[in-house]
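User: Predict the structure for this protein chain, please.
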Amino acid sequence: MLFSTTMQTNIRLKHFLFLCRPLNVIIGMLSIFIGAFITGTLQPLLKVILASISGGLIAAGANVINDYFDVKIDKINKPHRPIAAGLVTPREGFVYSLLLFWSGIIVGWLVNWLAFVISVFSATLLFFYSYKLKRTVLWGNISVSLMTALAFIYGGVAVNRISFSLIPAAFSFFYHLGREIIKDVEDIAGDQADRIKTLPIVHGEKIALQTATGIYLFLIVLTIMPYFFKIFGIYYLAAVVLIVDLIIVYVLISMWRNSASKNLSRLSLILKLNMFAGLLAIYVGKF
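Assistant: Here is the predicted structure, written as structure tokens:
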């Protein structure tokens, strides 16, 4: 009986963990850590760790509240998600997200006052993103992209060197903006069912893909600039061109050849994994 209860508890915990989207959370935490690292110092290290934990908790809360508001859409687009699949109740998801948000804000307060302000702003914006903004043309995409950019700035705040984190923040903003638009094309069926007004729904799939392509081509040019301005070294250039930018080019070619939802979902995952390569490029850029 005890063994059965323990197993059921473990299964429930896995559902709640899956609800947080651990890969996204890890990327966010790494972004904050890298945001601090590229400033030239990780001191005070405790502040950097706290900032990373704070950002991870807020990101987890954002992922959970997104599933709460998107339950109808997910039943069409992503029926495996815990709330959509009935593995976690909507009420449980809502309370869980608030606990994660407030935990992240409290930990942010332990970093410094500016981190506290950013954490409150981020949690608030991410809540309203899921509630309203994601159902508007581009504003939802911009909100998510801004949050990913703030992750790097958050790392700079932890070591009191904000200006040093602005370059990766800019890269992150445009990278995620392009990916969010591609995801909107992927999710057209579910979004239409919930009457969400995204770029591909309002202006058409072709316009959306053209917009994403333009953003990524601009980003590719932007990623090369730090080398020519001698901000980052040759290792950065090699990593960003041969891995990050090359994968982006592959994604652009593939999505124009096949814009079916299944392929766009695959490309979205590739772009997500490519973020690690981007973090690596910035990391080695200091050498």
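The chain has a mean pLDDT of 91.
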